[in-house]
User: Fold this.
Amino acid sequence: MTQATDMKYLFLLFSLSIICPLALADDSVATDGLNPFILIARIQIKEGMVENYLSIADEVDKAVEASEPGMLFHNFDADPTDPLAYTWTEIYKNSEAFLKHNANPPVGEYVTKHAELGDGFSIEIYGNVSQDVIDAINVLNIPLKHFKTSRVGYVREEYFK
Assistant:
């Protein structure tokens, strides 16, 4: 691995260590949507469309950075073994931040363009989220796998006030 790749992985591991939601014995308590969580969106791009896709990804990335303070980390990474596979890694401050992201017009434009340039799209959520987040994703008809928080983990809440 290159030093830059090593640093990305170390940052992601560090982020996971401080972002994993607070451990609670009763999982129902942590579904209020106030905690941070991680969303992974796995993207498959059509053959011959990678450069076009990178352009729309760059466009939405810049728009999200400018308009969504609740998006704490937003990165588009290339799969090391499949040149047509990419992954969005997104860290949200809370469920409301995702709902704002989902309603952001540049994100809707990106999803529309994805339909032309992409072959696949699936979402994984790591951490507890509000039911509104689950409902919003289900409306999109995008495959979703939700990894709910177990009783193990914590959040350094002072970073999320």
Notes: Helices lie at 3-19, 50-67, 95-103, 105-117, 131-139. Confidence is low (pLDDT under 50) at residues 9-14, 16-29.
